[in-house]
Amino acid sequence: MTHPCSGFLVGALAWKNVVTHQEAIRTIRDEGFRGVEVLCNKEHFDWEIPDRVNDMERALGQWPEAVITVHGPFRECDLSCSDPDGWQKNLQMALNAMDVAKRFGARAVTFHVRGSGSAREWNDENHKAFLRSFARLADKGRDIGIPIMLENMLPGRFTAREEELGALVEEFSSNDVGVCIDTGHAQLNGNLAGFVEQFASRAGVLHLQDNSGGNGDEHLIPGKGSILWSDFVTGIKAGGFRGEKVVEVRSIGTLSETLAAIQQSIVETDLHRMNNGL
Ligand SMILES: [Zn+2]
Questions:
Q1: 151 CA distance to ligand 1 centroid (A)?
Q2: Over its length of 278 residues, how does the chain's per-residue pLDDT go in tens digits?
Q3: What is the pLDDT of residues 2-16, one digit of tens each?
Q4: Measured in angstroms, how far is the CA atom of residue 178 from the centroid of ligand 1?
Q5: In the chain, at which end, N or C, are there fewer CB atoms within 10 A of the end residue's CB?
Q6: Which residues make beta-bridge pairs with 117?
Q7: From the CA of 192, how far away is ligand 1's center (Å)?
Q8: Residue 10 DSSP class
Q9: What structural domains does the chain harbor?
Q10: CA 176, CA 144: separation in Å to the nearest integer?
């Protein structure tokens, strides 16, 4: 019998501020998961400092079979910055993250529409700036053989709605640009079923996380919130999803405790059904 976790990656929120990358990656490997999602966030992993990249590379080197995805920078990086100098600087940060992803052998890099400054601000200029950045990242991804993903955002932010995300990704080839469906963000928007229906086959990455519906973006372990996981799994399988499944939950204690709870959740929700035929 296959291990229930063997189809799932663990996102960095599970070990951020808890243990070193070295220890985290070894522990996740030993618990039988498929791999990890590396998060480009300066206080956690600064992808622009060579020593930090070397450290992460060494940590990942303990697990050569790991499947790796990268979460591109968003806290420090705004790809929709409309000021020309700022635009260039932000784009460069994202391009640097893609170079690091290539070094790590990553399968996908996920981006957000806007992550810093006034996150809710979104106008024609932001839209144009974002499309220009994303086109450069898509070209880079094609050159290095790593597709980029655009993630759905929280309520009130651009790409919270299916048609907003759809209008951006439709500008690109599905070979270069896919979608990351974040289940928790969509649940807060009340449109998880809509995202699944529209993007299951274009989703290269899933961020699996739960919430109670009214307490914000909780990043709970699946099954601890209000998402109907059985419906989600049925829909995403029927829609032809073939990407990577990242459990993106906040730590609930030690890393081992968090991983044990994730394992239990995969068995108890219908998520384990995603191991078959995917
Ligand atoms: Zn996410």
A1: 7
A2: 578 899 999 999 999 999 999 999 999 999 999 999 999 999 999 999 999 999 999 999 999 999 999 999 999 999 999 999 999 999 999 999 999 999 999 999 999 998 777 777 889 999 999 999 999 999 999 999 999 999 999 998 999 999 999 999 999 999 999 999 999 999 999 999 999 999 999 999 999 999 998 889 999 999 999 999 999 999 999 999 999 999 999 999 999 999 999 999 999 999 999 986 54
A3: 788 999 999 999 999
A4: 14
A5: N
A6: none
A7: 13
A8: E
A9: 8-275 (3.20.20.150)
A10: 11
Half-sphere exposure of 238 (CA within 13 A, CB side): 10
* CB-based contact 37:11 (threshold 8 Å): yes
28: which 2 tokens? 């996740």
Query: 31 CA to middle of ligand 1, Å?
Result: 22
CA of 182 to the centre of ligand 1 (A): 5
The four Cα atoms 153, 13, 277, 272 give a dihedral, to 10 degrees, of -110
Q: Tell me, in angstroms, the distance from the centre of ligand 1 to residue 85's CA.
A: 28
Instruction: Quote the pLDDT of residue 1.
Output: 54
Residues with CB in 5 Å of ion ligand 1: 182, 207
Round to whole Å and give the CA distance between 78 and 81: 6
> Tokens in use for 253?
């204690």
Helix axes 229-238, 192-199, angle to 10 degrees: 20
Q: How far apart, in Å, are the Cα atoms of 4 and each of 11, 190, 245?
A: 17, 29, 13
Q: How far is the CA of 206 from the centre of ligand 1 (A)?
A: 8
Task: State residue 278's pLDDT score.
Answer: 46
Tokens at residue 158, please? Answer: 């651009």
Do residues 237 and 274 lie in contact, with contact meaning Cβ atoms separated by under 8 Å? yes
- Residue 103 falls in which region: left (phi positive, over 0), alpha (psi -120 to 50) or beta: alpha
